[in-house]
Amino acid sequence: DIQMTQSPSTLSASVGDRVTITCRASQSISGWLAWYQHKPGAAPKLLIYKASILQTGVPSRFSGSESGAEFRLTISSLQPDDFATYYCQEYSSESRTFGQGTKLEIK
Amino acid sequence: EVQLLESGGTLVHPGGSLRLSCAASGFNFNNFAMSWVRQAPGKGLEWVSSISGFAAGSTYYADFVRGRFTISRDNSRNIVYLQMNDLRVDDTAVYFCAKDQYNDAVRRVWNFDFWGRGTLVSVSS
């Protein structure tokens, strides 16, 4: 099975900061990677798919990138609404494995 | 507008059974694979099971539920189900329904573009 290692598990930042979350796949996933935002009690929200394609309606401060087996989600200038938990997910295999999640907290 | 509404979560004893439902609207339900994903208390998201759209009901399961859970769909009513048998304490979680972003006529596995808000299953004696 593919393993997805996401880091950090917790990230403290301030409004206006630039932050990056990283996800590493245990084997090649050919860019089949998505990023989601999840807030308590809400439905998870798709942000990025195919590693770098911004989902319709998602603010342009979110971006995704890929370098080999490492994938990054960057938020260029944090807004108050961005404090949430973020997950990567590979979908190159039927098991669609998620990363462990990164909780983005207000510093 | 795409909507996914889960129901059926409740408190159940270990070894018991439960059927979750997810009512879908706002898209051509027949054409898309549907999945269940869960989140245990204090834990992250975990894929549970998927059922294909175009590919005539092919089903897929995580190892930890294979043989105990069964996913199915009723395309006439736009509902996807998760029948959960032999429930264990560690099956306690919020269960989310999710829709594949693209239909599976071209590729079998996609990311999820819409999710429901989940239904809570508690397994406890």
Number of helices of chain B: 0
Please tell me the overall pLDDT of chain A. 96
Number of beta-strand segments of chain A: 10
Largest sheet of chain A: 6 strands, mixed
Largest sheet of chain B: 7 strands, mixed
Widest β-sheet, arrangement of strands of chain A: 2-10-9-4-5-6
How far apart lie the N and C ends of chain A? 36 Å
Radius of gyration of chain B: 14 Å
Seen as an oligomer or otherwise, the chain set is: heterodimer
Helix/strand-derived class of chain B?
mainly beta
User: Which blocks of ≥5 consecutive residues of chain A have pLDDT under 50?
Assistant: none
Radius of gyration of chain A: 13 Å
Please write out the topology:
The complex is a heterodimer of chains A (107) and B (125).
Chain A: E1 4-7, E2 10-13, E3 19-25, E4 33-38, E5 45-49, E6 53-54, E7 62-67, E8 70-75, E9 85-90, E10 102-106
Parallel strand pairs in A: 2-10
Antiparallel strand pairs in A: 1-3, 3-8, 4-5, 4-9, 5-6, 7-8, 9-10
Chain B: E1 3-7, E2 11-12, E3 18-25, E4 34-39, E5 45-51, E6 59-61, E7 69-74, E8 79-84, E9 93-100, E10 112-115, E11 119-123
Parallel strand pairs in B: 2-11
Antiparallel strand pairs in B: 1-3, 3-8, 4-5, 4-9, 5-6, 7-8, 9-10, 9-11
Brief write-up:
The complex is a heterodimer of chains A (107) and B (125). Chain A has 107 residues and is mainly beta. Chain A contains no helices and 10 strands.
What are the defining features of this structure?
heterodimer; A: 107 residues; mainly beta; 4-stranded antiparallel beta sheet; B: 125 residues; 7-stranded mixed beta sheet; 48% strand
Structure report:
The complex is a heterodimer of chains A (107) and B (125). Chain A has 107 residues and is mainly β. Chain A has strands at residues 4-7, 10-13, 19-25, 33-38, 45-49, 53-54, 62-67, 70-75, 85-90, 102-106. Chain A has a 6-stranded mixed β-sheet, with no helix packed on it. In chain A, strands 1-3-8-7 form a 4-stranded antiparallel β-sheet, with no helix packed on it. The relative contact order of chain A is 0.34. The mean pLDDT of chain A is 96. In chain B, 0% of the residues lie in helices and 48% in strands. In chain B, strands 2, 4, 5, 6, 9, 10 and 11 form a 7-stranded mixed β-sheet that branches. In chain B, strands 1-3-8-7 form a 4-stranded antiparallel β-sheet, with no helix packed on it. Chain B has strands at residues 3-7, 11-12, 18-25, 34-39, 45-51, 59-61, 69-74, 79-84, 93-100, 112-115, 119-123. Chain B is mainly beta and 125 residues long. Chain B has no helices and 11 strands. Chain A binds chain B through residues 32, 34, 36, 38, 41-46, 49, 55, 85, 87, 89, 91-101, and chain B through 4, 35, 37, 44-47, 50, 60, 62, 96, 98, 101, 108-118.
